[in-house]
Amino acid sequence: MLDVARRAGVTKQTVSNVVRGRQVVSPATRAKVEAAIAELGYTPNMVARSLATGTTMTVGFIVPTIAHPFYSEVVEEVEDLLEANDYHLLLATTHGDEARALRQLAGLSSRSVDALLVAGDFDLGEYVTPLREQGIPVALCAWEVDPPDSLPVVTIDYEKAGHLAGRHLRELGHDRVAVIADLPAHRIRVGGVRRALAADGMSVPEDWVFSAPEASTESGYEAGERAVPLLRSAGITAVFASTDAIALGVMQALRDHGLRIPQDVSVVGIDDIPQSAHAHPSLTTVALPKRQMAREATGLLLRRIAQPQPDVPSLTLLHPEVVIRASSGPA
Amino acid sequence: MLDVARRAGVTKQTVSNVVRGRQVVSPATRAKVEAAIAELGYTPNMVARSLATGTTMTVGFIVPTIAHPFYSEVVEEVEDLLEANDYHLLLATTHGDEARALRQLAGLSSRSVDALLVAGDFDLGEYVTPLREQGIPVALCAWEVDPPDSLPVVTIDYEKAGHLAGRHLRELGHDRVAVIADLPAHRIRVGGVRRALAADGMSVPEDWVFSAPEASTESGYEAGERAVPLLRSAGITAVFASTDAIALGVMQALRDHGLRIPQDVSVVGIDDIPQSAHAHPSLTTVALPKRQMAREATGLLLRRIAQPQPDVPSLTLLHPEVVIRASSGPA
DNA sequence: CTGAAAGCGCTAACAC
DNA sequence: GTGTTAGCGCTTTCAG
After folding, report:
1. What CA–CA distance (Å, rounded) separates B1 from B49?
2. What does the pLDDT look like over B255-267, one tens digit per residue?
3. Distances (CA, A) of B65 to A68, B71, B97, B123, B221
4. Least CB–CB distance from A280: residue in B43, B110, B255
5. Which of A47, A189, A320, A321 is least surrounded by CB atoms within 10 angstroms?
6. CATH code for the domain in which residue B70 is found
7. Which domain range does residue B244 map to?
8. Quick one: closest CA in A to B134, which residue?
9. Do A65 and B76 touch (CB under 8 A)?
10. Tens digits of residue pLDDT in B28-73
């Protein structure tokens, strides 16, 4: 910067003003400085600027994984909005490992991100207080169980998602529905389903609930196979899967065991991941507004950065919607 | 840091030595300093350290998109390896927008990443020279067409992937195969298929090639529908899709038009994304070693950071493998 | 093993 | 409008 200044016959300060586009430089001076910059191939050093300003134009995002369509869409949307605002994304993944999450948190905070977004159900609640004391805006998103009341959180009404799925099944006349879910993670969704059935005086016996850990298609398939005998013996006409990925596996298992969807058994999931629309049959599901969630959370953070103010705890609950496709039919 | 030093009765330098774990501090002093750090809740400021050392423990990754299973797995693997080495990930997305790619590039370089990885077919080749002159290691990965010979690139033998797909079809006795591809992006893959057929004196007429832009399931479906009449009239027994996503859409279209897979038409894709194994029927494909690619590229960069040396241009070509499942059968 | 001094590249107040 | 003077928080010589 000093080289540029000398070459243009000004001081570093003037160069700084030109680089940052401040409107306090005469056109003539500006031209000289810009010429010098071009000749020297000067590039400002953001690290030095950050040290001086205390700002990095970077926000951190801690997310359980990125290899799942739900999160990859969320991350993509967050990055898009950040980039549109000249911010950069420092992405950290936890894979459900709490120690790793804490390391990532420490790494991001000491790296002075201007804001931090945390997704998933990790209770990092108490650990983020240092950041907040430093005045760094923090928000939570995709928080499924027990959203803390100390931080702003932008999430989805997962209970309602379950309720919508259950009600859809009820409207089709299903009385006997089995549940295949990643428990306890998705207990809220299952609670929603139960509430929908309870409204008509029905319930889901405990042994009609199958666990699909990891919420993967594989575990859905495996749980589906375990469920088949019961489906047959108990005259169950519908299966609720707590996730589309699980539902896809369940459908495959049912088919492999000779059950037709939706003639013999209806299947509904939650999420609306891209492949659900192209499954065979296409999957009826409850769409989670993930991109909207990403936008609102990022927007909230960006606003907090622009006009610093204490993180007012707030809860934004986004509404899911049923997407009726071919995997569900009359009982 | 000064506060900690005073409280422990030492100088900043000693605190720095303790924080960085240098083995030059007496246990007694170390204990005092650590106590002071704990009492004051001191956290080192990485920005200041970066300014002093010229190192950020951060690597940038520019990628076309993250909402596609191929890239999301690559990104996940890169992040895992970086995190294991105490590095952080600055992720930038281009969405095929060259101007955006250049902005991202400038943003990352001025932010002083310690290394840069670029995925996708953007010819950022000439634009990265400033970085390289700064001594920042740069590598390319997932480079499908014309890998530049000026930079290290870790990619996959896409031509071989196509060739393997074509040979698999030949071995099943298919003489007449149609192609549904995202062209021109995947021309190398299609070239591989053609080479496999040519070995037996066969070829793919131009009007047996259908375009599926964006390589999405939707465009695969749409292209599949366009192809159906030809498949029937020309007695075509197999379809090569340049991507699993496309193949999934194609399968759906064929089914919707009454063609059975693989009895009437075999379908093979390339990639081996997770959902291919759970499609109906499960998709025969050529697995691209994306995670290995991610590991090798990241490892290369990390090694260059550790022992600075000019970016020796090198080309690492990883080998794909056929995964035979249920969507392909005898002609 | 510890301490003092200098500086990484930039921005923030002021004065001129 | 432009120049001057201090730092931002840390690491790095080099003495002791």
Report:
1. 12
2. 999 999 999 999 9
3. 14, 7, 11, 16, 21
4. B255
5. A321
6. 3.40.50.2300
7. 158-288
8. A43
9. yes
10. 888 889 999 999 889 999 999 999 999 999 999 999 999 999 999 9
